[in-house]
Amino acid sequence: MQLKDARQIANRVGWLARQPKTFRKLVLDATELQMRTPGENVYGLGDPPGGLHCLVDGYLDVFTTAGAFNPFLGFIARPGWWAGDVAAITRSERRAEVRARTEVVLLFVPGHKIEQIARQDPVLWRRLGELNAEHLDNALLFAVTALQRDVRTRLLATLIRLASFEATFDAEIEIDCTQADLAEMAGLTRNTIGGALKELQAEGLVSRRYGRIAYNPVCLRAVLPTVPEIETYGSGGR
Predict the structure, then answer these.
(1) Is residue 17 part of a domain?
(2) What share of the chain is helix, strand, coil (3-state, %, to 5)?
(3) Cα dihedral value 189, 192, 193, 196, nearest 10
(4) Claim to verify: residue 159 and residue 122 sit in the same structural domain
(5) What is the pLDDT of residues 46-79, one digit of tens each?
(6) Whole domain around residue 39: which residue ranges?
């Protein structure tokens, strides 16, 4: 993929696509093209602050933790997903590990270029705050999901959370995700979640393909007993 093609994708979907045209140009002009192979880290837990990353092709695994607990798979990112905002704002260490799930193509904005953009457009920090709010929304939905006792509700909420910024889009999306991955992200066993997944498939709400799952997030929201009042969902990749 060429740099210009990657920039077009970032300009069309995700956080940056919702920003003013002049700001989008400042950010895109500062981007560099990066690639990762399956299993390769974009950055790790505790790494020093760097710049911003935008996924434009492929899938990424996002592992996170808190306190002394072991890291776990919390999110699977798709094209249009941005990360690195917290570290960029606070200059603090990374709070997540982001790893290539497949071959991936990324756009990268180095830290020093973020500072240059801020000098041209000081509103940058507020716009990064919007991105951070999306990630916080995702974390809150994850916490609420973990409190649900009903397996079906947990599964539906997890799938909606994985839709991220497309959670309100009335169109089918596809996630590179196995049954075991869903179980880990929903805090359930593989066998427990299997029955609920089969029910959703029988109802025509999900389509299971080899190693992937497809669904319309708006349709899932319609059958979720309690839909959190969150219009967009981020990723927690900070």
Answers:
(1) yes
(2) 45, 20, 35
(3) -170
(4) no
(5) 878 788 999 999 999 999 877 677 888 889 999 9
(6) 3-141
| Same-domain pairing of 45 and 117 | yes
CA dihedral 93, 139, 79, 26 (to 10 degrees): -60
Distance CA 173, CA 161 (A): 12
Whether the Cβ atoms of residue 230 and residue 143 lie closer than 8 Å to each other: no
Q: Is residue 230 part of a domain?
A: no
Containing H/E element for 65? none
Query: Contact 219/166 with Cβ under 8 angstroms?
Result: no
Domain-ending residue, one of 111, 141, 171: 141
> Please, what is the Cα angle at 15 between 210 and 160, to 5 degrees?
40
CATH number of the domain bearing residue 196: 1.10.10.10
The CA-based angle 131-133-137, given to 5 degrees, is: 120
- Enter the pTM of the model: 0.85
